[in-house]
Fold these 4 entries.
Entry 1:
Amino acid sequence: MTFPRTDPSEIAAGLVDLLDLREVAPSGEFSTPATVAAYQGDSSPHPGGHVFGGQVMGQAVTAVGRTVSAERRIHSMYSYFLAPGDPAHPIRFQVDALRDGGSFSVRRVLATQPGKEADEEERTILAMTASFQESQDGLEHQERAPEAPDPEGLPTTAEALAGIDHPVARYWATQRPIDIRHVTDPIYLRPDPASDTADAQMVWMRTLAPVEAEPLLHDAILAFASDYTPFEPILRRQGLSWMTPGLKMATINHAIWWHQHVSANEWLLYVQRSPSASGGRGLTHGQVFDRSGDLVATVTQEGMIRTRQKG
């Protein structure tokens, strides 16, 4: 795998370009009476030969957000991942307007790509429903962030993987547009030695370098970044690492609730735990806090997770 960029500012700016979709004509195959717009986006290289799920989800947030007024910000979204994306083809996002009320708007978007074979129909790789709301006053309460060391004193991914000559490790260390710093020891290469008692993990995250982008794209970046580490609490509890032989994982669904809207340029603390794993699936719950300790988002993800059976 060759990497086109090495400068952090270029990598972060490339994320904004990736999420900033171009408008295209709606496709008749997927059009409904509620269709209001369609957009198209490209993909960036990613280990494994498929499209990173967070990318498709972030682009879908941009697509639905383009169809509502700027005064209405996304407050929730629910995504189903239906098929792996092919980075060799652009992704089309077709948006349906399900509701426009006095203060809420609801949108549905299908992310599609050409079929694998020449005669195969366009296939859907992601389906998302999202709701938007105008800013309103109301009741307020929130959980506060747990105690955590400052991110500046924690090792970067590049430092955690220093000396590891592996294409995936090089990608994680040099190409991810999100700076991720583990409060709990990272499990890139080896299991958590405290897996018997590890019921949660914490990471700090922000863009690799500051970006200039409209508020909608900062919401899309949060969706993008939220998909990097949700499997890790499951791996921790099971005494596994990303390098466990025979490990297979894929996201099934992913939901986010925005409680406040923040800049992706600022450090966010992502606190995650896994309440359940069963039937070849694992569930994780995450809370995202800003630097002042305010809860800004809640995330849940369910994924398929399998290991090679012994014997």
Note: The chain has one domain: 8-134+149-306.
Entry 2:
Amino acid sequence: MNRLQEVLSHNEQFVNNKEYEQFKTTKYPDKNMVILTCMDTRLTDLLPKAMNVGHGDAKIIKNAGALVSHPFGSIMRSILVAVYSLNAKEVFVVAHHDCGMTGLSANQILDKSILSGISREKIDILRHAGIDIDNWLKGFTNGAESVEESVYSIRNHPLFPKDVPVHGLIIDPETGKLDVIVDGNEHIEKSNKDDLRHSI
């Protein structure tokens, strides 16, 4: 039995046994949270437990490195939809230690793509078309700085509301310990004080 057949066989039993009933909820997050985190397998169950997030509590967006790599990409669009359409009132960017994106270079991915049968010509076509493939595929050198950059990108997006806090954290994938890199509430308080000072 291949993996697809295994999944479908399980799914048939899951539906027939009505196991889905325990997961019924609405499309709105009960804790009004949207979480951007990494796709790392160690975080699948650990992160929600470490953050006290249960089924239906939060919108969870995953990608490699918990990165907002483009201001008008699908990650930022998902965050905006969560805030404006699905009642999310806070954003949490949660990266983790020992991330596979740390130190990753585009060449590592491109070399493996060539070994899998992608031609150098296709890669060259992308570069000649103006696609910055090297920057698009690169990782980061420091997880905390990466979190700060993603928080900055979200907070300063022209369509993002200024009264929604954007927090940045790093989780230990072994213990679940969370360290705060950016407290979004403190930023909003400081911005409000600055606005008040300038209005006087």
Note: The first helix runs from residue 3 to 16.
Entry 3:
Amino acid sequence: MDGKRPRSFYVLAAVFTLFLIFLYGPTITIAILSFQGPQGGLTFPMRGVSLHWFYDLFEQQAVGDIWGSFSRSLILGLMVMVTTVVVSVMGGLAFRKRFAGSGLLFYVIITSLVIPSILVSLGVGLIFNQLGFKVHWATSGFGSQLTWTLPFGLLIMFAVFNRFDKSYEEAARDQGASPWQTIRHVVLPIIAPSLIGVALFGFTLSYDEFARTLLTAGSYNTLPLEIYGMTTNVTTPVIFALGTLTTIFSFFVIGVFLLTVWSLGRRRSKQGSDAGKGMV
């Protein structure tokens, strides 16, 4: 070996670089254009550099309801996140043992992943109309988004419990713990990082979901619907400023979840070291 990298290494590195540019190029372009001056437009070249459009974003807009749609997306995302975590854990616990119809139920659960999202949105909207219920982002929109987030959460929980060491639960029961105490004090702390991952999946998938919310949000838009509507009637970089802020918010949410996972891991390692010292 002469220490030289093969030519294929540079080819793969170039392909990977192009992939990153393709993946993040549009987001970076929007971020750059959002810092244009007051006379800026929607395309290059930039006309000055300022924070004008970020300030303008917080003013009353001539069209749309940006902050109302943001609050709806935030509330809906939290609702979907909590429901996804709770149902996924319950489903993961239930599927630890085979029961009649478990195979069929599993395929029914994951089928919603392959059905076109717009058809799911249409179907949920029609069902609510036929039943006489109001099509609203907090009811029909909530239900349609769960058809997207729950399968991911359940698949994660299936994988987690498939590798879960049941000896921990047996030890807890030997110490006199009830089934609920075993779940609360043994199972949930062990799978906590996975629960955070399911929560992140649930929130982010809900926060930016468009197709499954299109026909189920009713007369009040969520943020993705609002942004789509703004593309037809907003001709200033304020829409780029909105995109930049929502991207920053998304990274902030991911950072909070990662920090939580890190703190849980650190606390667990500290407890393990303290237990080891106690045994010594």
Note: The chain is about 70% helix and 0% strand.
Entry 4:
Amino acid sequence: MTLPIVAYGDPVLRKVGVDIDPDYPNLKELLENMWETMYKANGVGLAAPQIGLPIRLFLVDTSPFAEDEDLTPEEQKALKGFKKVFINAYIEEESGENWAFNEGCLSIPDIREDVTRKDTITIEYQDENFKTHKETYDGLLARVIQHEYDHIEGILFTDKLSSLKKRLLKGRLTNISKGKIDVDYKMRFPALKKGR
């Protein structure tokens, strides 16, 4: 089932997610719905807060990036088969060079900006079977994981922009929160929910 994606301005996007355990209700169904929702919206990642759940859960499938001809064959290969569920994730270290990359977000449609992040991360998380993993990623893989990880920490990519950029985007962000945007996937808008 395709779920509505929560739009910018909804308080759930600002909550720090809580850990879940294997008894979390209907987890298998939730994951299936999240994959379906992400693919329907042409995303490469989706975090639980984006569908209204303040829990530490996100998923990533970087296959669409593998088509980028600017990447080396090794980078393309790494991105092509990368499809994972991250539960109760905690980034232990961010290291390496700072680099800028143009990011967008399903909760903030039609806005894309360059965001600077560290090149390499080490993350500990559990998979959908609650098996614990500790892994290190770099490049675009690290970037996508960092973006989704920020969601479970209550952080949006627009928070990482300069104050001037934020001021320039303020009107567009307000319009998104009021539902004054045309998207081809289901969304839930905070201003409409309150009857304004």
Note: The mean pLDDT is 94.
